[in-house]
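Folds abound. A case:
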Amino acid sequence: NRGWNFEAYVRFPTAIAANQAGFIGVGTAFNSTLSSIAQYAWFKLNASMALTGEAKDGTTTTTGKDLAFTVVANTFYLFRMAAKFGMGRNSGFVEFWVEDDFLGKITIADATATMLLQPIFGVQKSTGTGVPAVDIDWYHLEWDRI
């Protein structure tokens, strides 16, 4: 009831193309139309391989927050997120980290422990002949219990 922590060691074997996207994070019941997922927090990659952060808490949606980090294709990175609720000044945010570098945070003030988030990874492609992929070495998701 106080938050969650997510870590994943992941790479994108080839660069994400103009008609593709990749995402790594947590979300509620999956929908192939990503904006239709009720609640989520994830890292997202588009064609420039520039990393963005996105979050939706059921009330507020933030998309395309520039995290000022460019992913290199075929390189593993440790992607980390941490969210805290009901804990004072650091509550109501999800923090985004790559390796040990803090990249920013997004407000998720209406997030609760009842959101039932699960790990979510994927790539999307709207057109073209490219074959996007994501390699997941390992991941870990934990919820604070007290």
